[in-house]
Amino acid sequence: MDLLIAGDRHTALKLAKQAASGKTANDATTVRTLATVVDETGSANQNAVTDILLRNLKAPERSWRIQVDIANRLSMTDRAKARVFLDQQFQYFGKAPKLWPDVIAFYQRTGDDQLSKQMALACAAALPDYRNACVTASQSAAELAQVKAKTKAHVTIVTEQMKKKWFK
Question: Please, which domain of life does this record's source organism belong to (predicted)?
């Protein structure tokens, strides 16, 4: 990545391709690096970048972050395909508790408010440690802004009350 920052795009691409070959051809770190370099250099279209990331499916240890990135990229052109893909990956990873907020946020981002809210409720009931993360992930931008405004107003009220109490 330092080579990209320094402007040596050709060398960055060459080294990223070399790193993402052989035994590390499908590893998360090398695949992510190659995809980033290809994306930043504009040396291929978005479908090629997605294809590079899809190589991680062949890895002995898949990366959840890469699977979410693939789903996000797929959703730009085919939301139904992206949802099927993410659901398959969610199953593959055993519906691990830590993954629920990402799946819920994906549904929220791709316009399925109802499913994101349903999943958030299921998460809150079954996974209390992830309740806040799941509920937050299910909120739209407008809902998040409303919560932020209410929180800010509450902080202001409490601060003013404390000022009056402490600084008489």
Answer: Bacteria
